[in-house]
Structures are given as C-alpha cells and as structure tokens.
C-alpha cells in the first residue's frame, strides 16, 4: 500500500509531504482548491503523460516520489526481483519532470523507462474515475478478476501447462510432416554425402595429426642433415665432440678438487651437464634413426589432406568439422528412415495433449459460467444501493476463435446504467460518475480476490446525495477494511466514513497561489464535515449533525464517545 507521498513544484503545489495509513482516507476541500491534485500527481508517478504545464510556474522541475509497502504483496516483489529492482519490503518510486516537459523515472533509485513504471503501477494502484489506470476496463483484468473470484488459479496453471504441451507436440508433428514430404529426396542426398564422408573416414582430431605429419615429412631432409650435424658435434667428431671435451674437463677438475674442496660443487655441476648431453645425444640418435624419408608416405598424407579440404569446401565448413558433420547426417538419416514410426508416436502424443487441454478448458468454462452468473447478480444488486436503480451488470463469456493458454473464451463486463438501456461494454460507459460507482460495486463484491493494494476513487459520488451517498461511504469504508482506499469527495456522507481525512486548501497572496494538504484532527474533522453540510456559516445544529455523522461511522464504544465529546 501507499505509505508516503512527496510532491514538490507540481501544478500549484510548492512542497507537500503526506503519510498515508491503511483503511479509507478522504480528501476534501472547497471547489477549486485542487482536490484532484493528489490523484493527478500519483497518476503522473505511475506513468501518465506530462507536459511543461505540469511544473509550477517559476520552477525548473516538478519532483514526485512515493513509498509503497510490499510486505503483503510477494507477486510484486517477485516482479521487481526479476528485473533486479527489489530492495526489500518497500518500493520507492520517483518521477522528475523538467519545465521542458522531459521526464526521468526511477524505481528504487534505478532509472527506468516510462513503460516499466506503468507496468509496475498497474500492480500497485487502481485509479477509478476518468483516468488511465482503470484496470477494470481491460478485458484481461476482467477475466483475471472473474477467475480469482471463482478460485480458478490452480486450474489455470495446469491448463497453461497442457496448452504448452499441446502446442509443442503439434509443432514437432508439423515439422516432421514437412520433413517427411521431402523425405525421399533428402534421404538420397544424405546417403550420398554419408558415402563420401564414410569413404574418407576421417577421425576426430585427425586433421591436426595429418598436418603435423605433413610438415615433418616435407622437411625430413633438413631435419636429418641438421640432426646428424648436431649429433656429430655432440658426440661423434674426433677431439671436438662436446662429450669428449666435457669428460676431459671433468677429469681435470676432479684432480683439482683434491687440492681445493671448493671446486667440488663445480665438478658436480659439470658431471650433471655431461649426463644431460649424453642423454640428449642418445635421444637425437634414436630420432634420426626413426626419421622417415619415404616420399610416397608424404604423397599419401598430402592426398588425404587435399581430399579432406575439398570435401569441407563442398559443405562450407572447416576440415576439422567433417567428423561432426558425419555424425549429424547419420542422425538425420536415421530419423527420416524411422519417420513413419515417429509420426505415429507424435500423432498420438498430440491427440493426448489436446484431449487433456480440452478437458481442463471445459472444466474452466463451466466454473466461469457459474461464477459469472452469481457475480453478475451480486454486482447488479449492489448497483441499486449505489444510486443506480435498474442498473445491471452482466459478465459475458465470448467463445474465442482458437484456444489460448487461459481458456476457450474471452471475458467481458457489460453494463446497463439505466432501465431500458442495452448492455454495453464497461469500457464504453460514458459517465465518469457511473463508471466510478460501477467500479466501486465490483471492487466491494470482489475485494477478497483482488491483488491491487491501493484503490483511488476520484469524485466517485458525482451525481448522488442523501442516503445513496451514505451507502457509497459505507461501501468505501468496508472496502478499506481489506484494501487501502483514497477517495476524493465533495459529500459529507462519504467523508464522514473515512478512517483518515485530508483537507485541501488554496492560499493566495499578491504574487503566487499555493495548494496545501494536511491531515485533520478529530476536532477539525467535525468542522470540515459541518462546512460540507452547511457552507461557511457553521451553526450549532450543523456541528451537531457533523458530529452525529462521525459517531455513526465510527466503531461503537470508546471511539463513539470520543467523537461525542468534541465541542
């Protein structure tokens, strides 16, 4: 729910900061005071369009921010977490609108596009009146409300899973049938390619080995000549071989070591060097003896490499990829050769998935029909109590052309505001007052199933008065027991039912006009209700009537006594 609202340099508000509580809050004030400024500010915060006129005259920018408590709304927290925007049980929204009309939007301090803010706003606040954030006007929201009221959530989850299974098997069957139509031609091509690949019979990693062998054989004469020269220098030339010179030096050094022991470590190093040279000479001799100078072997390797590269160019791949291509072609050949069996299996699987979907969709349709009849009757009955005698709401289920993950029908709320008028879609109801009262009736009846925590009713009481106004107020107060309700009203019967009361006042001086909003104390509420009842002249009778209205709205007992003590 909305817990904190801060507005700076917006319209005729210079600076405003409000703490909001749970339950029902009323916003009142004289005509022209700017009662709807709070609603407009929240609408902008949730993504409404803004222009340069939004910014207070003389200011550079308007700054609107709010804090929402998400402790009881794990779905919204999960939505934020998916976008790396979750910051605990609170959500901070901010919008800055420059005098040029450009805006910046923030969610928990992170800049976000306006669309993301709108998507989040639809989960946090529902504004009823002539505003954009009316989720009840969207057919998908109407369907969700009906399903929530009917308790269809678990069935919808299984239905969506069945729909996905059906679509996946149907697509697999379509792909296989398309492949089967070209099966014979494709099999001929695959068999031809596999014949070439099998004839080459190239092993994984063989290209690298062949290239190394080709380089060695191509330079075999250089390797042999240079190797023999090195071998002679190391061990086979007379008087100049490294081994002979090292052996002679070691004998001389051994004799000297007996004269000076400090030469012993040097002697040991020289002995180790002699051993290393002897081993190197032996390894080199073996390498030269094994060196292959067979030109025919080189020819065979070069021919195999040429064949591999030629075949790779044909398939537009690297030669190293030929073994993997061979495996892939073989797998495709096997699939096509057994496609008839696979077609039968997929056909059976698709029919089973379709039957499972249709069975669950039929169950969902029946539950929706039952819930739609009952909910339509309850909402229609509530409309009569809200000053719309003869008003009727019908929840219409329209069969869709094709199945969807949410069932076989679309849900639409249709309304007749007056006797004799035809039912029309809720989204086409012309009167803002009628739409607000219809929305109120729907919200009250379905409050237990709704997800949006904060409801705002802007001038919900337009065109009503007397006993109907008191009924509207009671309905809003009852709704406030389950959801946070903010109501902009000009009727004392509605304002008296609120748990929290804000008053909007406009102050002017020689140069500027400011709107201020403050929460009223219990004594101040009596005065404001009296003003709404009787105008500027507050008589004792008017004050007594206001006090009585607050007494009736309050919980019996101590609260009622407290209200009665105000004088």
Quick overview of this protein structure:
This protein is an alpha/beta fold.
Provide keyphrases for this structure.
alpha/beta; six-stranded antiparallel β-sheet; six-stranded mixed β-sheet; 19 helices; 15 strands; 55% helix
What is the typical, i.e. mean, pLDDT?
85
- Which percent band covers the strand fraction? 15-25%
Radius of gyration: 43 Å
Strand order of the largest sheet: 2-1-4-5-6-7
List the helices and strands and how they pair.
Elements: E1 2-10, E2 13-19, E3 24-29, H1 37-45, E4 61-69, H2 74-82, E5 90-98, E6 103-107, E7 110-112, H3 114-124, E8 125-128, H4 139-150, H5 153-181, H6 183-200, H7 206-218, H8 220-236, H9 242-257, H10 264-290, H11 295-315, H12 322-337, H13 339-385, E9 392-404, E10 407-416, E11 424-425, H14 432-445, E12 454-458, H15 466-480, E13 484-488, H16 492-495, E14 500-508, E15 513-519, H17 522-534, H18 540-553, H19 558-564
């Amino acid at each position: 729910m909305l817990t904190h609202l801060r507005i700076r340099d917006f319209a005729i508000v210079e600076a405003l900061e409000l703490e909001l509580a749970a339950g029902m809050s009323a916003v009142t004030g004289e005509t022209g005071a700017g009662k709807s400024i709070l609603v407009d500010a929240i609408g902008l915060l949730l993504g409404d369009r803004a222009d340069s006129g939004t910014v207070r005259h003389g200011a550079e920018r308007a700054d609107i921010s709010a804090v929402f408590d998400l402790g009881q709304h794990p779905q919204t927290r999960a939505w934020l977490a998916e976008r790396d925007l979750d910051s605990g049980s609170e959500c901070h929204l901010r919008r800055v609108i420059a005098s040029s009309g450009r805006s910046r939007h923030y969610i928990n301090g992170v800049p976000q596009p306006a669309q993301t803010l709108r998507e989040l706003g639809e989960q946090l606040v529902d504004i009823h009146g002539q505003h954009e954030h009316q989720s009840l006007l969207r057919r998908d929201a109407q369907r969700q409300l009906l399903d929530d009221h009917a308790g269809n959530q678990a069935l919808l989850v299984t239905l969506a899973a069945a729909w996905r299974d059906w679509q996946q098997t149907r697509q697999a069957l379509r792909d296989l049938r398309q492949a089967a139509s070209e099966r014979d031609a494709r099999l001929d091509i695959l068999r031809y390619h596999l014949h070439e690949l099998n004839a080459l019979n190239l092993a994984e990693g063989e290209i690298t080995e062949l290239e190394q062998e080709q380089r060695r054989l191509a330079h075999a004469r250089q390797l042999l000549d240079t190797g023999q020269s090195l071998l002679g220098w190391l061990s086979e030339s007379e008087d100049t071989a490294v081994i002979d010179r090292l052996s002679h030096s070691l004998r001389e050094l051994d004799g000297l070591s007996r004269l000076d022991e400090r030469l012993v470590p040097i002697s040991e190093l020289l002995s180790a060097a002699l051993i290393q040279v002897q081993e190197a000479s032996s390894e080199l001799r073996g390498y030269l003896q094994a060196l292959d100078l067979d030109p025919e072997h080189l020819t065979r390797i070069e021919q195999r490499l040429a064949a591999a590269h030629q075949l790779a160019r044909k398939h537009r791949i690297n030669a190293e990829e030929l073994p993997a291509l061979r495996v892939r072609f073989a797998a495709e050949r096997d699939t096509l050769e057994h496609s008839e069996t696979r077609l039968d299996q997929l056909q059976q699987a698709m029919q089973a998935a379709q039957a499972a979907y249709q069975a669950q969709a039929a169950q969902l349709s029946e539950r929706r029909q039952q819930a739609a009849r009952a909910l339509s009757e309850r909402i229609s009955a509530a409309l009569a109590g809200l000053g719309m005698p003869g008003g009727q709401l019908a929840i219409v289920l329209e069969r869709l052309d094709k199945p969807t993950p949410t069932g076989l029908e679309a849900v639409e709320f249709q309304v007749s505001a007056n006797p004799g008028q035809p039912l029309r879609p809720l989204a086409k109801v012309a009167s803002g007052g009628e739409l607000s009262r219809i929305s109120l009736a729907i919200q009250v009846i379905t409050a237990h199933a709704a997800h949006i925590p904060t409801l705002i009713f802007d001038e919900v009481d337009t065109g009503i008065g007397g006993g109907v106004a008191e009924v509207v107020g009671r309905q809003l107060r009852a709704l406030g027991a389950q959801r946070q309700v903010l109501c902009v009203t000009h009727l004392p019967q509605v304002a008296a039912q609120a748990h929290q009361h804000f008053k909007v006042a406009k102050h002017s001086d020689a140069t500027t006009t400011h709107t201020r909003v403050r929460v009223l104390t219990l004594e101040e509420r009596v005065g404001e209700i009296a003003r709404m009842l009787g105008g500027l002249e507050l008589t004792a009778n008017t004050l007594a009537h206001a006090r009585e209205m607050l007494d009736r709205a309050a919980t019996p007992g101590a609260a009622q006594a407290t209200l009665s003590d105000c004088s």
